[in-house]
Amino acid sequence: MPKEIAPRNEMPRQDPRVRRRNFNEVALGYDLETALAEAERCLQCKKPQCIAGCPVQVRIPEFILALREKDMWRAVEVLKDKNSLPAICGRVCPQETQCEIQCVLGKKHEPVAIGRLERFVADWEREQGMRTPPLAPPTGKHVAVIGAGPAGLTAAGDLAKMGHKVTIFEALHAPGGVLIYGIPEFRLPKDVVRAEVEYVQSLGVEIRLNTVVGKLYTIDEMLKDGFDAVFLGTGAGLPMFMNIPGENYNGVYSANEFLTRTNLMKAYLFPEYDTPINVGRKVAVVGAGNVAMDSARCALRLGADEVHIVYRRSRAEMPARAEEVANAEEEGIIFDFLTNPVEIHGTDKGWVCGMRCIRMELGEPDASGRRRPVPVPGSEFDMEVDTVIMALGTQPNPLVFSNTPWLERTKHGTVVANEENGRTKMERVWAGGDIVTGAATVISAMGAGKRAAADIDAYLKDPNGPWWVGPE
Amino acid sequence: MYRITAREDLAPVTKLFVVEAPEVARKCKSGQFVIVRVSEHGERVPLTIADYDRQRGELTIVFQVVGKTTAELSTLGVGDSLASLTGPLGLPTEIEKYGTVVMVGGGVGIAPIFPIARDLKEAGNYVIGIIGARTRELLFWEDRMRTVTDELIVCTDDGSYARKALVTEPLKELCQSGRTIHRVWGIGPAIMMKFVSLTTKPFGIQTIVSLNSIMVDGTGMCGACRVVVGGRTRFCCVHGPEFDGHEVDWDLLMARQRIYLDKEKLALERYQQLCEAHRETVH
Ligand SMILES: Cc1cc2nc3c(=O)[nH]c(=O)nc-3n(C[C@H](O)[C@H](O)[C@H](O)COP(=O)(O)OP(=O)(O)OC[C@H]3O[C@@H](n4cnc5c(N)ncnc54)[C@H](O)[C@@H]3O)c2cc1C
Ligand SMILES: Cc1cc2nc3c(=O)[nH]c(=O)nc-3n(C[C@H](O)[C@H](O)[C@H](O)COP(=O)(O)OP(=O)(O)OC[C@H]3O[C@@H](n4cnc5c(N)ncnc54)[C@H](O)[C@@H]3O)c2cc1C
Ligand code: SF4
Ligand code: FES
Q1: Which of A39, A194, A432, B215 sits most deeply, having the most CB atoms within 10 A of its CB?
Q2: CA dist B95 → A216, B48, B119 (Å)
């Protein structure tokens, strides 16, 4: 007789009526009892499918077993062997399309809540005080990591454990990349990010803030001035606009500006913090990825009466995490599907007062395999809005390699790098994360950081052999 | 880090700081700026590099007190440190031998025009300076400007010192005088830069301005600083801050500078009240 499968354990969350006006964390996490009950659900498969779904191959059944046996430090150890930022991934990874979609239980029942268990174990460790793992003896090699986002932090942590001296250079005044300037407090508390950054520092990694590479130093100078290797993890932070009339009126924000003001600069605590932000009564957010959901939910929390997600495709194509779409909906965000802005209206003083949109319908599939939205002629209509947030995606910021023309890039502006080891076309320079893939996920950036770290280590031990193997 | 090693009050509302920032000082060029934060709760404000000393590893910044952050900045003194300083940012000025150049500095804009004038002079240009301020006590660095110019015209709006004129008046006279002017730089409040550009336009003299848009990161990440130049949207922090003055959409720039006016007022009032309360408890 197959054993009875209990339903998946819900994670307690703040009431939507309350949380829509505060920046405290929405999901509250399991308690020990619930975590143990959820861990019980895991079948401990002989041939676990879940691991293959995880971009960094966390040994999922093994950490769940350790948790079940209440051997918490072992659970931490198994988890951290592959994932140096588990408290972050447990909160923001799109588990439903990664490990959980593969989980055997998901075929007939609901999959094991792997992400929630990961978060539980990581939070437990943080409460205990993190332990620093043993480091390899110093190798005398010095690696520069550019960018303190998930890719850079992961590469730095791994390289430090291997005995290399590592210095991270970060343009902003706080480390974390998108985790600190983009993803809001209510989804990823900044204390969690800070703790994981401190963990990386505890491995001996030095972080130099307020340092813009490409301006203060070039990559060439770093290689000349004593760095044996450079890892480029500067992300994809260049905002895109639609290039429609009216886009420069006051009240039109890029999602990056809106989120940076809110999260990094803490505009939601203005005037206690100095950075202001303007949110009107009616806000339209254009786009439907995680960035759009975060912008919409921040706008609501900053006091807007009505917030719309304006998206040119339909619900099924939305790229955001399912859990966050559900959260946004519960909080009262309004979704306008198959709708695309064509013009923004402004007052004679230069402030946004409306947005002209056109209805769309889905046509034939395009290169991405998704059905292409096409405008319905004559279906234009006006929305009354006073704030518009453009969350259309981002591209790599060219600043870091503006004076490094020999670093090859694609026509999308991403850096050409070997996916397996992160090597770029420039000797002793590796790259990974959003700067290579374009806007992607935290865990894929970490995976790239790990693979590059392993290859940097191998290279530093034996720098002979061809630098670039693969297509020209 | 970022320790203040000297302070000078150039005018009641205009302060000069010399700040320790050896790496920035080693690397920066004229026309570039830094972004500073005064405290952990502070805003990121851009300030032009008014001078630098590579040997001593120091930068000079000159700023005008206009709102909360600059007011707070003005309370610091020698030995205090800034919470952060990032730079050099923006593109440096294109220094070449153009021939005869006119450097127009208005108000606090005199500070950023100085290192550019010096570089242009060193590059072999004949440098004519025009500096001006609303009134005598706001004028500074006349002596410094004299050392880097071949001719210097000084004016005040109210005539309390030197010639009574707006900076655009002597500029227009120069343009009309028949002398060949190869390039003009104008730095100061947006409205002044707009009129400098309008003055030179009929004469077809290439005019470079340094735009002061509102910024956040200063590295091209947020898009807050966008300006329209020649019909194209540009990011002031990475494509500028210098642009062709004849191509700038000035009305848009000035509208965007007012985005946070009411909140800035609130922040300043609150700050002044806090200072007042503090003063009372001390006494
Ligand atoms: C609002 C938002 C929400 C998201 N939500 C999710 C989510 O729920 N789940 C998920 O998996 N992913 C999410 N993502 C995507 C995810 O955050 C990114 O894929 C990931 O952060 C990429 O990591 P990275 O290390 O490559 O780059 P980043 O996180 O972008 O970090 C790059 C760092 O490099 C620094 N830098 C840039 N240029 C320079 C320079 N010249 N010199 C020095 N430093 C420099 C930057 O300041 C930054 O700190 C979200 C992204 C955004 C914007
Ligand atoms: C590239 C660049 C270089 C600059 N160099 C200098 C300099 O060398 N010396 C100097 O005194 N100022 C300079 N500025 C302007 C300076 O950044 C602002 O005066 C400062 O940010 C005001 O901050 P605050 O908090 O004191 O005032 P806020 O309370 O923020 O604003 C007060 C008033 O100042 C105006 N303002 C706000 N932000 C800016 C801004 N970024 N630029 C222009 N006006 C603004 C607004 O219209 C507002 O009404 C520069 C700006 C840029 C973009
Ligand atoms: S596939 Fe699901 S049930 Fe099987 S080991 Fe992984 S988490 Fe457990
Ligand atoms: S200040 Fe953010 S892009 Fe220029």
Answers
A1: A432
A2: 20, 17, 7
The tens place of each residue's pLDDT in chain B, 283 residues long, gives 899 999 999 988 999 999 999 999 999 999 999 999 998 888 999 999 999 999 999 999 999 998 888 999 999 999 999 999 998 999 999 999 999 999 999 999 999 999 999 999 999 999 999 999 999 999 999 999 999 999 999 999 998 988 888 999 999 999 998 899 999 999 999 999 999 999 999 999 999 999 999 999 999 999 999 999 999 999 999 999 999 999 999 999 999 999 988 888 888 888 888 888 877 776 6
Give every CB contact of residue A4 below 8 A, 6+ residues apart in sequence: none
Taking the Cβ of residue B44 and every Cβ of chain A, the question of whether any pair is shorter than 8 Å is answered with yes
A296 in contact with ligand 1, CB cutoff 6 A = no
Q: What share of chain B is helix, strand, coil (3-state, %, to 5)?
A: 35, 30, 35
A271/B263 touch (CB, cutoff 8 Å), yes or no: yes
What residues of B are in contact with residue A248 (Cβ under 8 Å)? 226, 228, 233, 252, 256
- In whole angstroms, what is the distance from residue A236 CA to residue A441 CA? 11
End-to-end Cα, chain B, rounded Å: 33
In contact, B130 and B104? CB cutoff 8 Å? yes
For the CA of B47, the closest atom of ligand 2 is 5
For residue range B160-193, what is the model confidence (pLDDT) as tens digits?
988 888 999 999 999 998 899 999 999 999 999 9
Q: Using one digit for the tens of pLDDT, what is the confidence trace for A319-370?
A: 898 888 999 999 999 999 999 999 999 999 899 999 999 999 998 888 877 7
CB B191 within 8 A of CB A226: no
CB of B228 within 8 Å of a chain A CB? The answer is yes
ipTM rounded to 2 decimals: 0.91
User: Are the beta carbons of B222 and A260 separated by less than 8 Å?
Assistant: yes
DSSP H stretches of helix in A338-421: none
Per-residue pLDDT at A1: 39
Residues of B in contact with A216 (CB under 8 A): 23-24, 27, 87-88
| Joined tokens for residue A282 | 């009616």
Ligand 1 atom nearest to A444, measured from its CA: 19
B7 contacts B78 by C-beta, under 8 angstroms: yes
Q: Is B212 in the pocket of ligand 2 (CB under 6 A)?
A: yes
| Identity of the residue in B23, B84, B260 whose CB atom sits nearest the CB atom of A216 | B23
Amino acid at the residue B37: R
For ligand 4, atom 2, which residue shows the shortest CA distance? Answer: B222
Work out how many CB contacts closer than 8 A connect A with B.
105
- Which residue of chain A comes nearest to B222, CA vs CA? A257
- Regarding the beta carbon of B223 and ligand 4, being less than 6 Å apart is answered yes
Q: Do strands A142-146 and A229-232 pair parallel, antiparallel, or not at all (unpaired)?
A: parallel
